[in-house]
């Protein structure tokens, strides 16, 4: 144990080199821990299920441009055509696509009036085939019946009598007992009543960055609109084969409209989280390169300090030090340098996190992650110093007798 | 002497090629990473219309709910209601003014087999073209009377003109848009301001529109409006009710040539809001805003948080790389202590030694900078492939960036070389010679 003092005193004779490595380790730890933390936050967001049977769903835009176009009749024809196509499980018209980025939101409240606060909710206008098409799980209440579905002309701003909401929305409206939501009335536009007749387990809103992303409602409307969307669910494995068939069938069935943006839900998800994915990839490359640079820095400086001490090492060897003792000298020296760096680094990591929390509203860091970073950097340090230490151990005792 | 030092630096760099390679790579990576993120931030916050950014102003009026501000920071809504925007247009109190909204429509080209296709449209008033300096290839924008008379005129982008008219001068021809015939009055060259300052609400980095039509046609329902719409109060049924509603969906810009004009316009806006208050609208405190282009972009915070975070991290990364270089240079220069001692004994002054080692650091810096440019280019390619069209036009290296990268590399590497050089110059010749 008295060796420790020896190593420490030797270290103090080359303060600057050691300090430089410590600072590198400190900054590496600071960046690494925060970068991993940011990656974890993004990954958690990306892993949230949308509630949809994404693998078998695709959607398309139906844009009507003809002046004479019977929207009601043609919509019924389109839906019949889609639902009868071999391989299609079900299809609906819908006003917005979950996690796509664009949609409609409203506020619901349990008491009418302008003074009470409302809870934001994403609105999906659909018919009674929505639960089957989207692959939602109805966990309470019942689905819409065909007679609940109303026509909604463009520009209409009143709301139908019933709604099905997601469990997260039920919990937000009725925090004490979400199941009690069934049969209750919620108010939209301050005072228009809507009865909650069903609850689905999960259905995400169009906006993945919204803190209410799990809150959504289904509204029994068929829309008369020149720009609407269809969502189509196929039998497992038949999606890619059916997409061009359906695009062609719809395009040819009526020339007064354009079918465009035939897109799978998988692609919608990929686009939705492209920024998240990109940031994660960039951050992980930063961490890898940073660790490599720090590692090489340790190797370089250790090699240098060993070259300078060749004669002393030879002398120690001549005086009976074993190879292992020489090696452990440099490894312990590295542990000391790392410890100083790690202490600074923990402070830096927490400091950077506080700045990120204040500037970008990130959440505070998990201390386990800091611990992980500390251990990782100790290991990197030890691995990096292994090769120089091994070279030092191989210095022959005879070196001591040479003059240079 | 300089070339002699350069030769010495070269010999020294080659002799310790491993160490030099690590240093050059470290500086290169540091410069590459920071230049990549700086470029993205720099392009995101670029001035899209430098020669006019100080005289163009975005107008905001606080028509929002008395119980709750439009934005958490208390700022007014970013867009205007139809009522307010059309009033401000008709008042004509600014040197130039224009109202706009995003729209879309379908073009049905003439001829057999030509399929109808969707286009993105901007519904704007006449001054749009002069205010934002659109580059015309053929014809020009329409004039005020076309707005007033709701004429079906259109300005096409070069792409649409290619697609429908094969690129010829189509001014005076007609084109079927949304089932109605429009007369082409102008064709513009490529115009895609980045950021797309004139309408942040539908994406600061989206493409500009493919066709431009008079704003007055929106009320006629000759084009479908689209874009971002926010309402704090139910608009009621029907399109007319929507136009009269408190929903905000319009961008309003004015051109005010000097400070005096700005103040006068501000007091005009205040007077208008006071008038409206008497009618029971504008129940919030007076909160009108006139921001010029750069103030507007600043207020809308179009540089994403991700980009700022990445830039912060990349600068910390650069610092790690520099610490690394300082350490390695120190190791290298001190390793030459015997040589330095010998040269000092033979009469080399500290100043010569200093110059020599600073030049060596500088050489490593230049090499690192050039490598860094390569890394920055790779980094930007990488970002482009990761983000796809989300960051279109934000991943190009221009001359400013190339020069800054090299300068940054040289400055940082000379800074990194200062301490090691100083230590090297302080070698005691007597001590070194003793051990020889």
From TrEMBL, chain A:
PANTHER family registered for this protein in UniProt: ABC TRANSPORTER PERMEASE YTRF (PTHR30572:SF4), MEMBRANE COMPONENT OF TRANSPORTER-RELATED (PTHR30572)
Source species taxonomy: Bacteria, Pseudomonadati, Pseudomonadota, Gammaproteobacteria, Alteromonadales
Organism: Thalassotalea nanhaiensis
Domain ABC3 transporter permease C-terminal: 285-393
Signal peptide range in chain numbering: none
Subcellular location: Cell membrane
Stated family: Belongs to the ABC-4 integral membrane protein family.
Bilayer topology: Multi-pass membrane protein
Transmembrane regions listed in the UniProt entry: 16-39, 282-306, 335-357, 369-387
Keyword entries, A-Z: Cell membrane, Membrane, Transmembrane, Transmembrane helix
Protein name: FtsX-like permease family protein
Keyword Metal-binding: no
InterPro entries: ABC3_permease_C (IPR003838), MacB_PCD (IPR025857), Macrolide_Exporter_MacB (IPR050250)
The keyword Lipid biosynthesis is annotated on this UniProt entry: no
MacB-like periplasmic core domain span: 31-239
From TrEMBL, chain B:
Residue ranges annotated for the ABC3 transporter permease C-terminal domain, each copy included: 312-429
Key word Chloroplast present: no
Transmembrane spans: 21-44, 307-331, 352-380, 400-422
Pfam family membership, one: FtsX
Keywords: Cell membrane, Membrane, Transmembrane, Transmembrane helix
The organism's place on the tree of life at top rank: Bacteria
Protein's UniProt keywords contain Nucleotidyltransferase: no
Bilayer disposition of the protein: Multi-pass membrane protein
Domain MacB-like periplasmic core positions: 20-222
Compartments reported by the entry: Cell membrane
Main location as per UniProt: membrane
Protein name as annotated: ABC transporter permease
Source species: Thalassotalea nanhaiensis
